[in-house]
Amino acid sequence: MLQLFRVIALFEGISYILLLFIATPIKYFLDEPKYVKWLGMPHGLLFIAYIVLAVIVGANLKWDKKIMRVVLLASIIPFGTFYVDRAYLKQ
User: What is the pLDDT along the chain (91 residues), one digit of tens a residue?
Assistant: First the structure.
């Protein structure tokens, strides 16, 4: 389960960065919204999977509330999932 969470965290982080720093500027500066549509749904699914797996892995690893808050908050901060992987998931 931990390895699956690490993979989902990686892809969630990458999709979030692409959405924020590539697709959104293209939408507003070049008036081309299709990239946001293409990246939005996969990112949304990866985000939900990240949250669900964070709760499951957190329960299995017996994370305290502080670690759990950091892991969950990382999902809405750009590059946050990469920090979580390095700080809490690598063994």
Answer: 999 999 999 999 999 999 999 999 999 999 999 999 999 999 999 999 999 999 999 999 999 999 999 999 999 999 999 999 999 988 6
31: left (phi over 0), alpha (psi -120 to 50) or beta: left
- Chain-centre distance of CA 15, in angstroms? 8
The pTM score is 0.91
- Our CA angle for 64, 91, 10, nearest 5°, is 85
30 φ/ψ angles, rounded to the nearest 5 degrees:
-110, 5
Helix ranges (DSSP H) in the chain: 2-18, 24-29, 34-61, 65-73, 80-84
